[in-house]
Amino acid sequence: MGGVHENGRLLQAGAALGEAKGAVILLHGRGGSADDMLGLARALGSDELEGVAWLAPEASGRTWYPMSFLAPREFNEPALSSALERVGEAVQMALDAGVPAGKLVIGGFSQGACLATEFVARHPRRYGALLAFTGGLIGEALDASYPGDLGAMPAMFFSGDPDPHVPWTRVEASARVLQGMGAEVGARRYAGRPHTVTPEEVQIAAELLHAVLH
């Protein structure tokens, strides 16, 4: 592990990782924090989901990469590669502790949703689920032929339209790419919704988590 984000915090809640039957990794948005994600974890039912570990990595300077996720990838380096490595470290921690990949959920909000989506596409396997609260794949232009198979992994995309940072067209395109990789994709578009996570989104995501992690 190294690079821009190597010294970032990693907060944990819920079950001890070595005893967990499942795990959820939540990635914050630009200017957010790991604490924010543990707040989201509580809203998603972390107190009710027994035996689940919740992991919240934090970016250096609370920003995973400097430019828009729609910028050419090289404009966001080396921070982007370090951010993806940081997610990979959290994933590997859970796997090494005995959490099955099929019980490992990766999600995030805004910049964190983009990072979660990009990680899943670039490290494909049958994870428990992807939860993308306002985000999509990263880069100026999308490669529609990501290699690998997601094995019917549930992937849920949520976004407002219009959103000041994430065009709905990119959310749709990202959903199509993951569907082409074998994911079972759902997408919810909220007309005029601010750049936030709504109670309805939380409820839908919580129901998916219960289905995957119980």
CATH superfamily: Alpha/Beta hydrolase fold, catalytic domain
CATH class category name: Alpha Beta
Question: Which structural class best describes the helix and strand composition?
Answer: alpha/beta
Shape: globular
In order across it, which strands form the biggest sheet? 1-3-2-4-5-6-7
Q: Number of DSSP strands?
A: 7
Distance between the termini: 32 Å
- Could you say how many structural domains there are in total? 1
Number of separate helices: 5
What features would you highlight for this structure?
single chain, 214 residues, alpha/beta, Rossmann fold, seven-stranded mixed sheet
List the helices and strands and how they pair.
Layout: E1 10-14, E2 22-27, H1 34-43, E3 52-57, H2 79-96, E4 104-109, H3 111-122, E5 129-133, E6 154-161, H4 168-180, E7 184-191, H5 199-213
Parallel strand pairs: 2-3, 2-4, 4-5, 5-6, 6-7
Antiparallel strand pairs: 1-3
Helix pairs in contact: 2-3
Structure notes:
The protein is of the alpha/beta class and 214 residues long. The protein has a single domain (10-213), classed as Rossmann fold (3-Layer(aba) Sandwich). The protein is 32% helix and 21% strand. The chain has five helices and seven strands, in the order E-E-H-E-H-E-H-E-E-H-E-H. It has helices at residues 34-43, 79-96, 111-122, 168-180, 199-213, and strands at 10-14, 22-27, 52-57, 104-109, 129-133, 154-161, 184-191. Strands 1-3-2-4-5-6-7 form a seven-stranded mixed beta sheet, with helices on both faces. Strand 2, helix 1 (34-43) and strand 3 form a beta-alpha-beta unit. Helix 2 crosses helix 3. The longest helix has 18 residues, at 79-96. It starts with 9 loop residues before the first strand and ends with a helix. The model has no long low-confidence stretch (mean pLDDT 96).
